């Protein structure tokens, strides 16, 4: 039985669709919305724990709160109660870490559906999470 579901949200329509899917398919599960604020320091900043005074830090925090608020409101409209959490660093790494440490049964993540060169150049957070997650991952596409 799926009791705890982690749903990463980034403000995209695909992540909102993943949230809606998670609520519809797992109505009795405890759902946590998770937003990652990219560190702006690349791998070195994320690994070293550098949080420094990033010029757009306030804007990033405001954006994170807006994303989580919008997703929470949508969940409420659908009759679900959700928890929220956020982290700072590389999205794929932090989502995998949260999935394991939070003792989730499932991650439901939206995919932007990039193919070919765009996927090679930009990578796929959903794909990286699916490869590394200690729990099952459902990619909503």
Automatic annotation (TrEMBL):
InterPro entries: Rossmann-like_a/b/a_fold, Universal_stress_UspA, UspA
Pfam families for this protein: Usp
Species in which this protein is naturally found: Halorubrum vacuolatum (Natronobacterium vacuolatum)
Family, as annotated: Belongs to the universal stress protein A family.
Name by which UniProt lists this protein: Nucleotide-binding universal stress protein, UspA family
Domain of life assignment: Archaea
Annotated ranges, domain UspA: 1-141
């Amino acid at each position: 039985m799926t009791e705890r579901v982690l749903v990463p949200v980034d403000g995209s329509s695909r992540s909102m669709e993943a949230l809606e899917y998670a609520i519809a398919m797992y109505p009795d599960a405890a759902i946590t919305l998770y937003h990652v604020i990219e560190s702006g320091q690349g791998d070195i900043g994320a690994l070293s724990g550098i949080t420094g005074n990033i010029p757009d830090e306030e804007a990033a925090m405001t954006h994170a709160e807006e994303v989580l608020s919008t997703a929470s409101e949508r969940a409420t409209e659908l009759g679900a109660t959700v928890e929220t959490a956020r982290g700072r660093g590389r999205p794929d790494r932090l989502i995998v870490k949260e999935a394991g440490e939070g003792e989730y049964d499932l991650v439901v993540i939206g995919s932007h559906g990039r193919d070919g060169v765009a996927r090679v150049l930009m990578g796929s957070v959903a794909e990286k999470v699916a490869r590394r997650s200690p729990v099952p991952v459902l990619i909503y596409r």
